[in-house]
Inverse folding.
């Protein structure tokens, strides 16, 4: 390569010019082409980013709808509160409370118990307490 060669760099190519300088019209045309390429690239990236956001939002909304549907569809059959607490019909409030305390201690999720059974025991106790 000659020592007096000038280098013109664009976004995707290197132009070697040996002696003849670039005219103003050529420079303006090159700059317009580079600006158009940059704008198209930025526009394409923005559209791709918007599409990713839209897909993520749809996925999040779909998961929320499915979870709400699962919660709505799960309606456990109301069990007899006396059988849940393991007491006889007509038990006193003291017997109900002592049976409830024993079952809550056994089934509390913070102490390794079953959360579903704990909720069932709580519901049975609430129903009996409200009816008394």
């Amino acid at each position: 390569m000659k020592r007096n060669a000038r280098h013109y760099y664009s976004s995707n190519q290197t132009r070697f010019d040996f002696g003849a300088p670039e005219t103003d019209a050529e420079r303006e045309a090159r700059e317009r082409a580079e600006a158009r390429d940059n704008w198209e690239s930025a526009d394409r990236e923005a559209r791709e980013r918007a599409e990713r956001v839209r897909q993520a939002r749809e996925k999040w909304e779909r998961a929320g709808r499915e979870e709400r549907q699962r919660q709505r569809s799960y309606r456990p059959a109301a069990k007899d509160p006396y059988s849940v607490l393991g007491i006889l019909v007509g038990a006193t409030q003291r017997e109900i409370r002592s049976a409830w305390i024993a079952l809550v201690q056994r089934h509390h999720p913070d102490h390794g118990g079953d959360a579903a059974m704990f909720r069932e025991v709580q519901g049975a106790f609430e129903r009996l307490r409200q009816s008394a």
